[in-house]
Amino acid sequence: MYLKTLFKIASAPLAILAASPLAAQPANSSDSSAASPPPISEDTMKEVTRMLSSDEFEGRAPGSVGEQKTIALLTERFARAGLKPGNGQNWLQKVPLVSIEAGKISALTISGGKTPLSFEYGQDMVIGTYREAPTIDIANSDVVFVGYGINAPEKGWNDYAGLDVKGKTVIILVNDPDYDSPDLNGDFGGKAMTYYGRWTYKYEEAARQGAAAALIVHDTVPAAYGWGVVESSWTGPQFFAQSADKGASETRANGWIQKEAAEKLLASAGQDLAALSAAAKRKGFKPVPLGVKASVSFANAIDTTMSNNIIGILPGAKRPDEYVLYTAHWDHLGRCKPADDGDDICNGAVDNATGTAALVALAEAFSKAGAPDRSVVFLAVTAEESGLLGSSYYGENPIYPLAQTVGGINMDAFLMAGPSRNVTVVGQGKSELDDYLDAALKSVGRVAQPDSMPQNGYYYRSDHFSLAKQGVPMLYIDGGDDLLEGGKAAGEAAAKDYTVNRYHGPKDEYNPDWNWSGVMQDLSLYYSIGRSLAMSTAWPNWVEGDEFRAIRDKSREGK
Predict the structure, then answer these.
(1) Rounded to whole angstroms, how far apart are CA atoms 81 and 84?
(2) Domain pair 14-28+37-97+306-555 / 100-302, same fold
(3) What is the CATH number that goes with domain 14-28+37-97+306-555?
(4) pLDDT of residue 25
(5) What are the DSSP E strand ranges found in 67-212?
(6) d(CA 479, CA 488)
(7) Which pLDDT belongs to residue 8?
(8) Euclidean distance between CA atoms 433 and 439, whole angstroms
(9) How do residues 537-555 score in pLDDT, each as one tens digit?
(10) Residues 438-481: pLDDT tens digits?
(11) Half-sphere exposure for 5 (CA within 13 Å, toward CB)
């Protein structure tokens, strides 16, 4: 998972779903079959998850031997499932990447304030670059606090107003100014995070403003993850999409700084982080020069590599030029910060060997049921952990026209917490795909609930976003948090256990004692939704007023 939702809790009792009809669908569906979903193989889920997350695959980093093993496994399993190569005669779509690994990282030093400060890499800060430069040396760069680092003309908001930050180091708060709102009212959607709250946006805007370096203040609540997640994610090679200017238009350095370290930095400058953070929540905030200077340097090991999206297709029986899409990312972090026992392979069993295995299991089920009217595409994307790079590349270079892509479902990390009474819809109310989900849920006696933590911006954190911003309606469904055994307390405990002990770390490993019953229920739900879409003649859209509606409408003009 790309620093996103951790409540992927599998749901729904097996006996109920196994007996449920597939026919419960939106009224515009043309599928009149009353057949139950075909069996989805638990053995396939176990076997593929186990193999993908074995030490032999070395954490499945893009460009590694683990990628080659992943390609061999998935293409063999896709073919065995009855799929055809998804890119002409090829199973692969090449995705050009550059790998940059920072080394010989100096301390981040702050001078010119009340007290000289030195912040250590890993413990106090992490840093790297998007530039293909052998060394980065930032010396005596003026430091500026820029609040939330947002420039949103349509909202009359500019945290950079009135100050040129070219060549300077900017300190930025994570999330949106109204993230702690009790409701959805506010300049930035209240507690629901917008893209302006994402750390990726903040680096993008800092680069547009000409900053030399951008440091985001880590705070666990608005970030939605602890420092350990940041540290492990920034350890080792970082992958980026290759660019014509080799990253010259980016900042020279990007990173994060611990909140406690940021408090010390501002105190040395005679400022208070809490007071400035409060001021930054109000429209009209102006950037604050801190009167101190920052220095940091590091060397870069640079390598260009060609990674791959892996694509299989089940051609439609009646309308093969209309496509339903299933996505999951196959990559993980490779080798990362070692655990206490010395284990340095981030195996990524839950994240996202489970979702990748689901592509294979669903492909088998679709093939056994026979080709639906529309084609079904199974897309395993690369470099999700590096910033949704594989799905973004597909969205910008689609194998199948996006105007002819009906919609899709993204699958990212199934926790083995057991069956639940509900599912969580991340981005509920955004598109008409909700109708298909509601029909499938009704048939098995389950309920949908909206994301309880919209302030964390989960809709922008996984591969569905790459397709959504190109106009394709995409569902992202989390398993429920109200477990049949133990209720919400048990659901929250399961999610917390994974977050604290395994997420983005070497202990996200396959466990032969896992209870898969809840996962298999979610897969049956995903199958039912996809099958309904694939048998329908309808073209679900984003709801009126949604941020992606205009893009979809334009792409579908004349269709």
Answers:
(1) 9
(2) no
(3) 3.40.630.10
(4) 46
(5) 84-85, 92-103, 108-111, 117-119, 125-128, 135-145, 151-152, 157-158, 169-173
(6) 12
(7) 37
(8) 10
(9) 999 999 987 878 989 999 9
(10) 999 998 889 998 887 777 778 888 899 999 999 999 999 887 78
(11) 32
The domain spans of the chain are 14-28+37-97+306-555, 100-302
Please name the residues in contact with 15: beta carbons below 8 A apart, sequence gap of 6 or more. none
Sign of the four-CA dihedral 517, 523, 526, 527: negative
CB 408 within 8 A of CB 324: yes
Side-chain-side CA neighbours of 86 within 13 Å: the count stands at 34
* Nearest by Cα to 285 from 158, 153, 154, 152: 158
Least confident of 215-229, 421-435, 443-457, 524-538: 443-457
The 10s digit of each residue's pLDDT in 1-59 is 654 444 333 333 333 333 333 333 454 444 433 346 678 999 999 999 999 999 999 99
Residue with tokens 């917390």: 496
Q: Is the separation of the CB atoms in 287 and 214 below 8 Å?
A: no
**Does an H or E element contain 305, and which?**
strand 288-314
What is d(CA 170, CA 143) in angstroms, rounded to the nearest whole number?
6
Question: What is the reported pLDDT for 553?
Answer: 94
> Exposure of 4 by Cβ count < 10 A (0-12 exposed, 13-18 middle, 19+ buried)?
buried
pTM of the model: 0.78
Residue pointed to by tokens 């709250």? 197
Tens of pLDDT, residue by residue over 267-312, are: 999 999 999 999 999 999 999 999 999 999 999 999 998 999 999 9
Does the pLDDT of residue 500 top 50, yes or no?
yes
Residue (of 340, 313, 300, 307) closest to 137 by Cα position: 300
Assess whether the previous peptide bond of 158 is cis (omega < 30° from 0).
Answer: no
CATH of 100-302, one of 3.10.20.30, 3.20.20.140, 3.40.50.2000, 3.50.30.30: 3.50.30.30
